[in-house]
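User: I'm curious what two different proteins look like when written out as structure tokens. Can you demonstrate?

Assistant: Sure. I'll show them one after the other, since each token string lines up with its own sequence. Here's the first protein:
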Amino acid sequence: MLSKYRRWWRDAVIYQVYVRSFLDSTGDGIGDLAGVRAGLPYLKKLGVDGIWLSPFYPSPQHDHGYDVADYCDVDPLFGDLAEFDLLVAAARRLGVKVLLDVVPNHCSSEHPWFKEALAAAPGSAARARFHFADGRGTDGCEPPNNWHSMFGGPAWTRVVESDGRPGQWYLHMFAPEQPDWNWRVPDVAAEFDRVLRFWLDRGVDGFRIDVAAGLFKHPGLPDSDDPEADARTRDSVNPLAWNQPEVHDVWRHWRAVCEEYTARDGHERLLVGEVSVPSAREHAKYVRSDELHQAFFFDLLSAPWNADAFRKVISEAMQDIAGTGSTVTWVLNNHDQVRTVTRYGEPATGGGLGAARARAAALLMLALPGAAYIYQGEELGLPEVVDLPDDVLTDPIFRRTGSRARIRDGCRVPLPWSGQASPFGFTSGAESARPWLPQPSYFAEYATDRALADTRSFWHLYRDGLQLRAALPQLGEGMLRWVDTPPGVLAFTRGDGLVCAVNFGTAPTPAPVSGTPLLSSGPCPIGVLPGSTAAWWINDL
């Protein structure tokens, strides 16, 4: 029915804006919507098709906005609805799409409905909107089941009833300040209908859906065979809490809402899900023609730096996901992951290896068929900040476990824009203004003004890759064909004669094709592909 509309999202490149760390317009050390608006020309120059905004809704900020107290407003930290409207209008003038982050699995403990539930009696309609249950053991002193939170510790918190006695427990698969909604209650679905329409009416181009494989829990809330799996892996592996079959009905309904708006003006709205499931085949179920348009394919992000591993995950995605009629949504990083430069680095072999691999991976991703998402700062080659003091850490994982393992503050440090010392142009306040997380002194090497001036920088690699992707008909949507290569080298063709090749080793190897070089992630002599380098050619054979 929608084939007459231009499906812009199928090969779009979207830039993830982590609002509080992008650009601060007020001098309080926290990025805001006006800062995003000021940065739009920079993003347009980079060449992205759209932006995804992290949550900016009213929130007590226990999980930096992923604990939403009001889904239809703007937290004063970030501006107001008038500023949001200015941002959308400015983006539209530049031809930049705007996606919002919607959080349907859980809300804030400060949400009016949850406060109503706490004040209500067990068995009430107010409590039914969440997962309240009686405890086990003597006087209900033990949680209703053995599930663990992905942020560490039990997934249950006990409440004090109105008479002052310990009472029921409520479920939170993340922090205690993030109670899970009960999507088996019609009130919840109706409320999110209202939320979607509120923002669609304000002109947004779609939504990134947090925890899109969540929402429904097994109705009996039974014990898990591996209760610590979620906390141990920080992934949605408990089959009783995630990926329940009923969730697909929600996405069919949300798709219908989006198509209703598309039918009005011919502009297709996008639903892209954060889907953590065991396999590409399971992932494909979320992007069937009447469900989500796209879902992030995290297997590329998690693949080890190895040609065989990359080929395997790419092949599975092309077979199972692209086979649904959707396109694969590739991602190498986001606000929950260690930055690629650090993740790919091997300190024992030298500090430059991670950067070389990150550059090669970026060029590989931009050559793959489908859409791609870039996390802010990746275009600058920013490394993870691994030495933040304990007293500045804000990640609830650290607060709940006391461990620095897998915490996310290091990839969320505010961007450096200019200058030789913090705040590096991030805040409009005085030079002594303090960003909400401290920036290391070495961020001066990665500042945007320096990156734009250096044609060898990460920024120019991304910009040149995006320009070629937009100009060459072989790139974007479509298929790929693998090319026979020496061990440790991965190569494929796109369309008519365009080849992307990556050397995953450290030693130079003969190039797997000959022809006209277009772009390389590093020095690339004709006929030779250096180690940890990617390159694009037009094959003249």
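Here's a second, unrelated protein for contrast:
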Amino acid sequence: MNIITGNKNYLFLRFKIKQVLRIIRKKVILTAFGKANNQINKIFIINLDRQTERWELIKKELKNIPTNVNINLSNFSERFSAIDAKIKLLNNTKINSTYKLQDQYFVDPDPRLLKIIREKEINIELTNQETAVALSHISVWEKIILKDVSNALILEDDVYFENKFSKTLNLLWEEIESSSLDFDIIFLSYKKVEHNPDIKKVSKNLSVPKRGIWWFSGYILSNNGAKKLLSKLPVIGPIDLWINHEFANLNVYLSNESIINQKLFVQSDNNYSILPILSQIGIKSNETFILLDKLKGKNPVFVFDLSENCDTTLSKINTLLSLNSYRAYKNVSERDSLHVKESIKQKQTLLFDAYLGFNLIIDNLSDLINFYPSGIIIIIEEVHDKSLQSVLSNEISTNLHFINSNSKKVFKQVSKLLQIKYWEFNDIKLNQVKIDKNINSEKIQIINKFKYLEHDVNPWIIPIQNIEKYIPYNHTEFEILSLAKPIDGISDSFNKMDLNYWKLLDDTFPSNLAHFTKRNFRLNNSGFEITITNDKLEGKQYSSSAIVTKLPHIYGSFEISMKPIKGDGIISAFFLHRNDPWQEIDIEFLGNDTTKILLNVYYNPGFENTNYNYGVRGTPILIDLDFDASEDFHLYRIEWEYHEIRWYVDNKIIHSRRTWMPTPIPDLPLNVYVNAWITNSEALAGKFNNILLPAILHVKLIEFYKFEY
């Protein structure tokens, strides 16, 4: 990428000074070039037909560099007519014009890019100029094979040679010959990426890159290297980005210093596809999201707990990180561990800010740190294992930290390491149950049509379109991991009102056009009714009612037999809810189409009285029923376990969500609600018309069962 940065006049002045110094200094004779197979036989210079001035300038440069065979470098050079982007480029199987932002992140792991990658997958289309550049290089590789050139120096026409070019190349080439070094490509011109280039110096003259260099403007390519590159086609993305992804498949070396440079003061003809994306980095339209994102400290973070009490410790660390706006993925099953391990092996971009308890990936830490060089690794252990520390310290960076699990300051230490706010919750009990990895699962086919609606964007939601890419998931086939036994059942057909268990609300909320009142609730011979009326109350134009349990519940089966209201603008709901922090699991019917059911989850992290109440839409999905729910009673059930939520209609499963599909599972006690209300959102349920009133929600039965593990 020849993206010009800095003052052009200053860059041009530096170039002219180097030219003057080259003239007055004694010339070094270049020994690396010749006709032998162990020498560089040819120079190919990629130059557009319409840029004759550039060709003349580089020829002049080459004439000033003498070789030991009494000729200068221009005698080894051959102009290659570059493919012009101004000419219409036909579809070519050698180039894949679409690449992903995460491909860019692999080369230059800029943490600002990571934020965007986590929100959504961004496809980027190559510009015509980038395509033309790649095709020009490919054509040169083909020519090397056609002419049976042993080793060739390939140059773009906007380069110049550093004053130490001949001396350094002589030393480099002598090392290659003396050690019979097998190479495919040697970069003489490159620019290291800004963020943690993965380059290892292997000798006085050579380094080996795993990733992390830009520019493809000056490199030596062997005949075998040309064959390998052609076998790896198509090129995906800009060619200097793509070559980084192929380093693992090639014998690649760098000169320890770049001895061919680019004339950055010259206006580049290239048009870079990545620039529009880079210009958006850090820009967020949601002010709340910006404030939450500022809470986040160092990341990504990988926490391994080798102690016996690991579930409790990791649950608290999970809460601590979540409260600091980390997207934290806590391991809950062996399947999840294997998936994360495979993702690392395949060098896939990991979606989360934090990975907790994935002990299976300890063996892959070196791979992990290569991909996330700034990642923080924390190992919690009861007894300090010096041998483990020795092995891991040799493998990875200094971002490795060991914490004694018996210390009372575990969470303070984690907060300090990550530079985040510390929350005092050592005495707070967090709900956590360990999944038995040997539990039998059941695969369920779901044929109901569905539609995801617009959902909130906050640190505790994965954009729905990204779920499949990072967590094993199928929209129509669910692996049900039901671990619990139902106990302590409660069945209420409302022959009378149990005021020890239920209460009627006298309140409302901003998006509701009706006020809830006891007057609009009525018991009948088999259940109860909630009626929406034209009665004005407490500043609202209409009245309705809502019933709620006095005590909250955590994990269980919650079922209702109901007949919702049909009518634009009206919502009938059976749901579990709490505030501070706001968590919720919904079943709702939108009055404008009662042949569908709306399922929703809201998640905010924390514990009792933690004021995290972000979001207005949640993560809704609209599912087709095979009947009109307003015409008769049907059974609707929510099964809520700590790792999974399942929704049923007439005992048939219609939807399931595991953790982070697309939110964590609510993990705090929730109260159970039934209500009917009028929404102010026409887009959600249609435009309300009071001619519909009175409108009645009918309920026959409500049953709850607590889950025991």
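A detail about the second structure: Confidence is low (pLDDT under 50) at residues 1-18, 279-286.
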